[in-house]
């Protein structure tokens, strides 16, 4: 109903029905997939909203600003319409609504995408935050997890039942985005990436159909969603394989003298190349707000007490420790330990990629830039890959980077925009200084920033043509494009 019609109805003594409690109703200007303009008819929006078990949030509604917020404050976008879907049927309805108007479409799981790909200006956001929950089949060791769930939903349901699978390191990251891109986490070297434990998905494709993809049904889609990101539709349920787990891990954080960084990193790379599977280990150089730099090797261990002790001893030997913290703790507490420092609403910039072979030149590039350009709040972190992740063939799933030895990430975040801009400039300059050393390694799609089409294609490597063909089959109009986008053939 147009504003003047509402006024007319009010003057005639007929109060218009407005499920949102707005003073008036109106058509809504929106943006199409190709960047053109369209107008969403008020009657269509009402009809769409009436059929949802979730709800619709428009500009001007109470809660709009909260609903449009994502983790990285660098992206302050204003969608025309946010469809908060509470069921698979809602998602199918929302996909069809977007398709009917050819709307620019973003899909929001946990909202953690660093490059802001789960929102958009003027388009529609399918928000899955009402579609949460995990059911555990203890005997069958399977978790069924709704597509908008956070990692804590999975961990908190599975671990008390003596079961676990690989999930990321911050508990309120979305299971959706994390899983579809790969899923790096503290148990990856033992149990593989999160995708290596995906038994199947329920997915709404671009035509609004609900499909299942697993080893028996739609096998092409099952292959593609394991690493191909959100290109193929909206996943409304994941089924994960679970592994027996006693819920306890050993954490360690060993400090070293930053002036010994080159020697330390040489030893760290060597250790990472042959570390046992039960060792999750990372090294980081950072600079505090006081300008003091920090060098640390930290991680999480499973395995027997002897295996854990041996691993800590090996890490201590990487250099001359200046501080030493080792604890046996609940895995669930560790999974939530970075939640506060990684909170929503900071301005964040980071660049990331994989190293293949590392040499003395790699180490020189890493340390020389860091030392020559001290940046308060700046961080360089390395994570040892390999183990079970590296034993899967690069074409067994869509995730191609199986040979990576280390994941490297540079940048930082701040609640202050000006400070964040400095960190962004620093991160970009740091990346420029080291990018040649990552050339063979590619990057993790869930950490991409401003990669561009060519780099995305190159990164998928030998899997790219197969992904393009599957994209053409399930999303020929490229409706799902706000992701590490694969153009249909
Ligand atoms: C603080 C922080 C910690 C992180 N830690 C880790 C980590 O430990 N391991 C790791 O691997 N990654 C990690 N990441 C990266 C993370 O995997 C990505 O940011 C991922 O995109 C987050 O998923 P999400 O659902 O929260 O993201 P969103 O921003 O909601 O979505 C990201 C992308 O996934 C798509 N998507 C999301 N859900 C669905 C769905 N159900 N169906 C179809 N498409 C969907 C979206 O369209 C979008 O393209 C971290 C990121 C942050 C900010």
Question: Which labels suit this protein?
Answer:
alpha+beta, disordered N terminus, 15 helices, 489 residues, single chain, binds flavin-adenine dinucleotide, Vanillyl-alcohol Oxidase, Chain A, domain 3
Summarize the structure.
The chain has helices at residues 3-11, 42-50, 64-68, 88-101, 151-158, 175-181, 188-191, 219-225, 261-274, 305-316, 331-335, 360-372, 417-438, 452-460, 464-474; strands spanning 28-31, 37-40, 55-58, 81-84, 105-108, 124-127, 134-137, 142-146, 163-164, 198-204, 210-214, 234-241, 243-244, 248-256, 279-287, 293-301, 321-330, 347-355, 379-384, 406-414. The protein is an alpha+beta fold and 489 residues long. It has 3 domains: 25-127, 2-Layer Sandwich (Uridine Diphospho-n-acetylenolpyruvylglucosamine Reductase, domain 2), CATH 3.30.43; 134-245, Uridine Diphospho-n-acetylenolpyruvylglucosamine Reductase, domain 3; 248-452, Vanillyl-alcohol Oxidase, Chain A, domain 3 (3-Layer(aba) Sandwich), CATH 3.40.462.
Largest sheet: 7 strands, antiparallel
**Total number of distinct structural domains:** 3
Rg estimate, integer Å: 24 Å
Mean pLDDT equals 93
The third-level CATH topology of the largest domain is Vanillyl-alcohol Oxidase, Chain A, domain 3
Number of helices: 15
Task: Give the helix level as a range of percent.
Answer: 25-40%
Q: Helix/strand-derived class?
A: alpha+beta
CA distance, first residue to last residue: 41 Å
Unreliable residue stretches: 1-18
Tell me, briefly, the overall form: globular
Name of the level-1 CATH class of the largest domain: Alpha Beta
- Small-molecule components bound: flavin-adenine dinucleotide
């Amino acid at each position: 109903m147009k504003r003047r019609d509402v006024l007319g109805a009010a003057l005639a003594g007929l109060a218009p029905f407005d499920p949102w409690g707005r003073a008036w109703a109106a058509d809504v200007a929106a943006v199409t997939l190709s960047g053109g303009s369209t107008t969403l008819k008020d009657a269509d929006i009402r009809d769409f909203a009436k059929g949802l078990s979730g709800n619709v949030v428009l500009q001007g509604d109470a809660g709009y600003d909260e609903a449009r917020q994502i983790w990285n404050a660098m992206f302050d976008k204003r969608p025309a319409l946010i469809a908060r879907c509470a069921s698979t049927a809602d998602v199918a309805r929302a996909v069809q609504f977007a398709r009917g108007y050819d709307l620019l479409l973003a899909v929001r799981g946990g909202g953690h995408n660093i490059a802001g790909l789960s929102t958009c200006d003027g388009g529609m956001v399918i928000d899955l935050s009402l579609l949460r929950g995990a059911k555990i089949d203890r005997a069958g060791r399977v978790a069924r997890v709704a597509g908008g769930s956070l990692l804590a939903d999975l961990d908190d349901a599975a671990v008390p039942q003596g079961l676990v699978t690989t999930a990321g390191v911050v508990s309120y990251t979305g299971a959706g985005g994390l899983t579809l891109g790969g899923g790096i986490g503290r148990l990856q070297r033992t149990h593989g990436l999160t995708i290596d434990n995906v038994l199947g998905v329920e997915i709404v494709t671009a035509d609004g159909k609900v499909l299942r993809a697993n080893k028996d049904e739609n096998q092409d889609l099952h292959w593609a969603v394991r690493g191909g990101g959100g290109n193929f539709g909206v996943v409304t349920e994941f089924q994960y394989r679970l592994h027996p787990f006693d819920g306890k891990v050993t954490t360690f954080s060993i400090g070293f003298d930053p002036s010994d960084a080159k020697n330390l990193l040489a030893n760290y790379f060597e250790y990472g190349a042959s570390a046992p599977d039960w060792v999750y280990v990372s090294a980081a150089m950072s600079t505090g707000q006081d300008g003091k730099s920090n060098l640390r090797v930290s991680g999480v261990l499973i395995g027997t007490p002897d295996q854990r002790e041996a691993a800590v001893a090996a890490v201590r030997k990487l250099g001359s420790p200046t501080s030493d913290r080792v604890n046996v703790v609940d895995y669930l507490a560790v999974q939530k330990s970075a939640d506060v420092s990684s909170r929503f609403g900071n301005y964040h910039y980071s660049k990331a990629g994989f190293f293949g072979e590392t040499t003395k030149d790699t180490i020189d590039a890493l340390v020389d830039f860091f030392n020559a350009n001290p940046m308060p709040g700046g961080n360089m972190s390395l994570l040892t890959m390999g183990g079970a992740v590296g034993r899967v063939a690069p074409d067994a799933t869509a995730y191609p980077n199986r040979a990576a030895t280390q994941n490297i990430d540079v940048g930082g975040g701040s609640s202050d925009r000006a400070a964040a801009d400095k960190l962004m400039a620093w991160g970009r300059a740091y990346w420029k200084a080291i990018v040649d050393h990552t050339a063979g390694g590619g990057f993790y799609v869930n950490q991409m920033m401003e990669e561009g089409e060519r780099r995305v294609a190159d990164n998928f490597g030998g899997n790219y043509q197969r992904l393009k063909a599957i994209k053409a089959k399930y999303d020929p109009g490229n409706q799902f494009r706000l992701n590490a986008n694969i153009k249909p053939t």
